[in-house]
Amino acid sequence: MWSLKNISDRERRFFLPAVVGMVFVSVFLFVDFPLYRNIVEFKKKTGEEEKRLKSLISMGQEYLSVRNQVDDIKERAFKGEGASLSGIDSDVNKAGLKKKLSSLKPTTTPVTDLLKRTKVELYFEKVSISEASRLLTTIETDWHPVVVEKVSIKATYENPSLFNLTLLVNTVEK
């Protein structure tokens, strides 16, 4: 059997640094290097998870912002009786064109169980350009969720300075 007692001092001096070097290399190859590689992979995965977490947080904040905006629109849309036609009526009254409104044709289509989209055609007779402008400004600046889809203006035969105005507006209601 081979042992350290059977070798000379000179051979021990030669083998001892070799054995220590082999132990050092073995520890480095089998312990330190895998640990270092695992740490690098862990840091890489941690960085990716942090990016993913930041993305999720920003998406959550964006969702909350959009949900708050939708809730605000719903609150404004259904204030009072909840009918958007009353909002259009109040806009026409504010513009002072109630007496010149000759027809109002609403068409309602369901969007969800709680919401309906209403498309309304408003026809005004003998309206001046300033009155039409005032009506459009009132509709656009009022808190009711009303969107003007189409505007049609035609001059009247009796007085070319007055116009027949047709508005097609979209709105929502409960």
Key terms:
single chain; 174 residues; alpha+beta; Alpha-Beta Plaits; 4-stranded antiparallel beta sheet; 3 helices; 54% helix
Quick rundown:
The protein has 174 residues and is α+β, with helices and mostly antiparallel strands.
Would you give an account of this structure?
With 174 residues, the chain is an alpha+beta fold. The chain folds into 2 domains: 69 residues; 90 residues, Ribosomal protein S6/Translation elongation factor EF1B (Alpha-Beta Plaits, 2-Layer Sandwich). Strand 3 and strand 4 form a beta hairpin. The longest helix has 69 residues.
Under the CATH scheme, which architecture of the largest domain would be assigned? 2-Layer Sandwich
Coarse shape? rod-shaped
Strand order of the largest sheet: 1-2-4-3
Question: Spans of 5+ residues with little confidence (pLDDT < 50)?
Answer: none
How many helices in DSSP terms? 3
Portion in helices:
40-55%
Class derived from helix and strand content: alpha+beta
Q: Helix-strand pattern, N to C?
A: HHEEHEE
Mean pLDDT: 81
List the domain count as a whole number: 2
Largest sheet: 4 strands, antiparallel
- Beta-sheet strand percentage? 15-25%
CATH top level class name of the largest domain = Alpha Beta
**CATH superfamily grouping of the largest domain:** Ribosomal protein S6/Translation elongation factor EF1B
- Radius of gyration, in Å, reads 40 Å
